[in-house]
Specification:
By secondary structure, the chain is an alpha+beta fold. The protein is built from three helices and five strands; from the N terminus they run βαβαββαβ.
Length: 101
């Protein structure tokens, strides 16, 4: 099963990739953090290494993932994303975290 997943990116990554705030990526099989990020990096290779480490594939420290008002940043990367994201009703949000007080 192939699904089109909506992904919203922070402004800096949009500028780097030369794209708008929201893109759609085609995901084969189950929509998970891993499959969505893999598809995003295939479609926009200039984003490789910006969201997750190139070697370990772990999320960068100041990047957060959200979907359906849930923080998925620490969820296992192979857990299925909410059905609303897999259907394209809701976006998978990639957010640049802000440090400090």
């Amino acid at each position: 099963m192939t699904s089109m997943v909506r992904v919203e990116l922070p402004a800096g990554l949009c500028l780097l990739a030369g794209i708008g705030r929201e893109v759609r990526v085609s995901v084969e099989g189950s929509a998970t953090q891993r499959t969505v990020l893999d598809a995003l990096e295939v479609d926009y290779p200039m984003l490789r290494g910006t969201i997750r480490d190139r070697t370990s594939k772990l999320r960068r420290p100041f990047i957060r993932f959200f979907a359906c008002q849930q923080d998925l940043s620490h969820a296992p990367p192979d857990d299925p994303l909410p059905d609303a994201v897999a259907r394209g009703d809701e976006a998978f949000l990639i957010v640049g975290a802000i440090a400090g007080g």
